[in-house]
Design brief:
This protein is α/β, with parallel strands linked by helices. It has 20 helices and 16 strands. α4 crosses α6 and α6 packs across α10. The longest helix has 19 residues. The mean pLDDT is 94.
Length: 496
């Protein structure tokens, strides 16, 4: 796939816009569907593997207007129902087509205070874009209206104006709410509860806010400056923040409610407990969880060797095990940290990979090699205890399992050796166990996820939970959806 420059994409869109824009108010659905989908401009692959700048550059104004014209403004509006936070998608897109970007971002912010983040990292292709009328008509989700790219466009436009609107906060109610964890779920709860006039304090274990958005998603996909901007809105609303505060150790959750005067609490402590494969050699030097590897590189800025003291393992040949977005992030980060060869080893086929198509394509463009229907049997080391190879097995696909994907079945006697000096395990994370361990009133399931009712309330009175601590490792927008439900329940509780 040849790489088109941002200038070429802008010029092509400008020509088409001259043709279609005059017809904006009279175009039939068939004409709109005929407008070609706008590709996302990006850095050249050979350039971007040498830096950590954002890969996707963002739509030009011409591209955004043209893409917005592709929306048929259908009556059923299935995209809204498929959005976990229920953004009025057709309306914000219509405002872009009209060139009224302020109205567009205002519509989004009625439902979400994190549009620049969601526009970048949400899996729209399995959420709002999947039921899109244009997707159905063309029978291809990649040709549906690019909702996330348009959301990013207006969010970035607002930021570029330097005039980010701060949501209105109602008069002080005298009620206090504690938020445990500053990931996407916690930030959403903080915003929605603060809007109602309640005092909000966020307790964050790390020294920076953002949760998995900051430690788990690399700068080249989600720049930290974007997270800082979104968080600054909360500060301007009067939300208090205590960092380096580990609820469960620094202070027990029950004490916040019983001794510190908080009327309700929300637990959004995430799923940061790495899961390993349970094979021989995982204790060798050079084996990392993707969680640790990315946290060192992102939150602790290990890639900035001149200015950061955080050590990072120097690698030449890296194997990453897993097929999700985290595996793609780890593989692409390894490339940027100087690895000569990076392999993604996955026991199913590309079709079954849970990673976003865009992330897989970007990885391929950057020279990441994919080994499908393979997996590690054991990790081998040298006399110094360092990784020097992986013994792998080949697989074939059998019948579907509980996930609906065909089950990988090992092929007996298919062992082979893959020479590497680093192994990164990216097969998932377990829920943070600290709150359940120190708060026995909170019930969890057998995987350690907190059990909640339809209002996101836990078995402990006035304590709500959401995001990965409830769902297991999920997406930013699903965590935000749970946060919105929890905030509505908290606001209802405190209004009594």
């Amino acid at each position: 796939m040849s790489h088109k420059s941002p200038e070429d994409l802008k010029a092509t869109a400008a020509k088409l816009l001259e043709e279609y824009l005059p017809l904006k108010d009279t175009m039939k659905a068939k004409q709109r569907i005929g407008i070609p989908v706008q590709d996302m401009p990006s850095q050249d692959p050979q350039v971007r593997i040498t830096n950590l700048d954002e890969v996707a550059i963002g739509y030009s104004e011409e591209q955004a207007k043209l893409e917005a014209l592709r929306c048929t403004q259908c009556k059923k509006r299935p995209c809204i129902e498929a959005c976990p936070v229920k953004i009025d998608i057709p309306t914000f897109i219509k405002h872009i087509a009209d060139g009224d970007y302020q109205k567009s971002i205002d519509v989004i912010k009625q439902s979400s205070l994190l549009p620049a983040i969601c526009g970048r990292v949400c899996p729209q292709e399995v959420q709002c874009q999947e039921p899109c009328t244009v997707t159905k008509a063309l029978k291809d989700v990649s040709k549906g209206v690019s909702i996330g790219r348009l959301e990013r466009f207006v969010a970035d436009w607002e930021r570029s104006t330097g005039n980010v609107k701060i949501p209105e906060v109602k008069p002080d109610t005298g009620k206090k709410v504690a938020i445990v964890g500053a990931g996407p779920a916690g930030l959403v709860v903080a915003a929605d509860v603060r809007r109602e006039g309640h005092a909000v304090t966020i307790f964050e274990a790390f020294h920076k806010l953002g949760g998995v958005m900051r430690y788990g998603i690399p700068e080249f996909r989600l720049p930290n400056t974007i997270i800082d901007q979104e968080v600054s809105t909360l500060l301007a609303m009067g939300v208090e923040i205590q960092t380096n505060f580990v609820v469960g150790k620094t202070r027990k959750l029950a004490d916040l409610l019983e001794k510190d005067g908080f009327n309700a609490a929300f637990v959004g402590s995430g799923a940061g407990l790495p899961i390993f494969m349970g094979i021989e050699g995982e204790n060798l030097i050079g084996v990392f969880s993707a969680n640790e590897y990315l946290t060192r590189a992102n939150l602790m800025r290990a890639y900035d060797r001149e200015n950061a003291d955080t050590p990072i393992y120097v690698s030449k040949k890296v194997a990453v095990f897993g097929g999700g977005n985290v595996a793609m992030d780890a593989a692409r980060m390894a490339k940027r940290l100087g690895a000569e060869e990076v392999y993604v080893v996955y026991r199913r086929t590309e079709k079954e990979m849970p990673a976003r198509n865009e992330e897989i394509e970007h990885a391929k463009e950057e020279g990441i090699q994919f080994y499908f229907l393979q997996n590690a049997k054991r990790i081998l080391g040298d006399e110094k205890g360092k990784v020097n190879a992986i013994e792998c097995l080949r697989y074939e696909l059998g019948e579907p399992d509980d996930s609906g994907r065909r089950r990988p079945v090992e092929i007996k006697g298919s062992e082979f050796i893959l020479e590497v000096d680093t192994a990164i395990v990216a097969i998932g994370n377990g829920s943070n166990p600290l709150i359940p361990q120190t708060t026995k009133q909170i019930e969890v399931n057998r995987w350690g996820n907190i059990i909640v009712d339809e209002r996101q309330e836990t078995s402990m009175k006035h304590v709500f939970a959401g995001g990965d601590i409830v769902l297991g490792a999920a997406t930013v927008i699903l965590a935000m959806g749970e946060g919105r439900r929890a905030a509505a329940a908290i606001n209802e509780l405190l209004a009594e």
